[in-house]
């Protein structure tokens, strides 16, 4: 794998840390600002919405500069947002900082996915994308647990200051290791927008929203669930997040490997199993050992779907993939926002801290249905038209581009 993938993984590590560390620190942040945990959950929702809306805006703004320069600018924005979060005097200011940092997220992963895929042979594209996303998953094994531990001992503000420092390292890595790849000539914003006329691109993004939303429905509220329901001490949240991160790392690498061989079957297995495991989490959350196993499986199954979903979008929007790629990252975070909101609703309704698991199971099951529908439509589009005896041959249907 090219060394430039390491630089992309470094940037992904910093972004992954700031995205997920807030979940382990929700009780501390809520207590510091004097708000409820569901209210503090808006820091998750706000970040996710910022990624969703920021992805197309930042990508569109970056169509006139090289991909390397745009990646560097995005890391600079990430640094500013996390510094603002670290010094926020009230929740509203921290929310602004989270949104500023989130504006870099979608475009970085979207543009980075295209760069990663262009660095390798066509039959290794999903693996290259998975290598970049490894930074995101390793963040959940190293960055998030350490950030949670640091936040619980020295204060959550210190955590976000350290995350800003990670952004500086990521910026240096991109500047040093990513080749200066010029922007593609002849591809304009209208070409990028044309990809969204492809129903398969839209279906892939909807699968992303629902599938990854299933993961976040449970994980957003993992701290109160594990402490109030399972009976873990507050300090245990750190290593529980390590388990989730280990599952993410393994699932991401497996998903990248098999997506290059059998993309749609990989999606069927990961989404179907994810729906089942999330439903079972409502029961296993009451037992410490079973809860630990379930957390690992949620991380593994959720991220096993990430490389195939990202590659699916790149394949279907192959002629102008940058905006579609970034929008799919936004779709991940739309799922995060939707599930965090729905999870907060069921908790606020008095259904308990395990209720979001049912929300997640329903979302993942819906993603599986869309995957089956997408494959059926693709088979129908690729099938030859039936020629009726004595008539002119029917016009050959146009297949979905690969």
Automatic annotation (TrEMBL):
Gene Ontology annotations for the cellular component aspect, listed alphabetically: plasma membrane
Mode of membrane association: Multi-pass membrane protein
Gene Ontology terms for molecular function: transmembrane transporter activity
Keyword terms: Cell membrane, Membrane, Transmembrane, Transmembrane helix
Domain Major facilitator superfamily (MFS) profile: 4-379
PANTHER family attached to this UniProt entry: CHLORAMPHENICOL EFFLUX PUMP RV0191, PURINE EFFLUX PUMP PBUE
Protein name: MFS transporter
């Amino acid at each position: 794998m090219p060394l430039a993938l390491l630089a992309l993984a470094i940037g992904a590590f910093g972004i992954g840390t700031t995205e997920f560390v807030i979940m382990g620190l929700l009780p501390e942040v809520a207590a510091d600002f004097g708000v409820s945990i569901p209210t503090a959950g808006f820091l998750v929702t706000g970040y996710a919405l910022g990624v969703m809306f920021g992805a197309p805006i930042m990508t569109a703004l970056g169509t006139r500069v090289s991909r390397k320069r745009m990646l560097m600018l995005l890391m600079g924005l990430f640094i500013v947002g996390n510094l603002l979060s670290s010094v926020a005097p009230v929740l509203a200011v921290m929310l602004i900082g989270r949104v500023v940092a989130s504006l870099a997220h979608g475009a970085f992963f979207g543009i980075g996915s295209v760069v990663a895929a262009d660095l390798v042979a066509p039959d290794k594209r999903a693996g290259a994308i998975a290598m970049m996303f490894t930074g995101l998953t390793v963040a959940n094994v190293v960055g998030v647990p350490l950030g949670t531990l640091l936040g619980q001992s020295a204060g959550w503000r210190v955590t976000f200051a350290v995350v800003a420092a990670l952004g500086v390292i990521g910026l240096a890595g991109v500047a040093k290791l990513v080749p200066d790849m010029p922007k593609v000539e002849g591809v304009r914003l209208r070409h990028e927008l044309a990809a969204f006329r492809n129903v398969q691109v839209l279906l892939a993004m909807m699968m992303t929203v629902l599938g990854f939303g299933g993961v976040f429905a449970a994980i957003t509220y993992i701290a109160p669930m594990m402490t109030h329901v399972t009976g873990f001490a507050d300090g245990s949240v750190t290593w529980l997040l390590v388990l989730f991160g280990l599952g993410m790392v393994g699932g991401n690498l497996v998903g990248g490997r098999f997506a290059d061989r059998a993309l749609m079957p990989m999606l069927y297995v990961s989404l179907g199993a994810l729906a089942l495991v999330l439903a079972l989490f409502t029961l296993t959350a009451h037992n410490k050992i079973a809860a630990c196993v379930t957390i690992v499986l949620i991380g593994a199954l959720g991220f096993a779907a990430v490389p195939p979903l990202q590659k699916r979008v790149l394949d279907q929007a192959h002629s102008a993939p940058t905006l579609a790629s970034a929008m799919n990252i936004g779709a991940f975070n739309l799922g995060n926002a939707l599930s965090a909101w729905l999870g907060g609703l069921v908790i606020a309704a008095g259904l308990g801290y395990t209720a979001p698991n049912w929300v997640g199971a329903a979302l993942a099951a819906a993603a599986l249905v869309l995957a089956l529908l997408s494959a059926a439509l693709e088979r129908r589009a690729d099938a030859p038209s039936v020629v009726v005896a004595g008539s002119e041959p029917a016009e050959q249907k146009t297949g979905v581009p690969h």
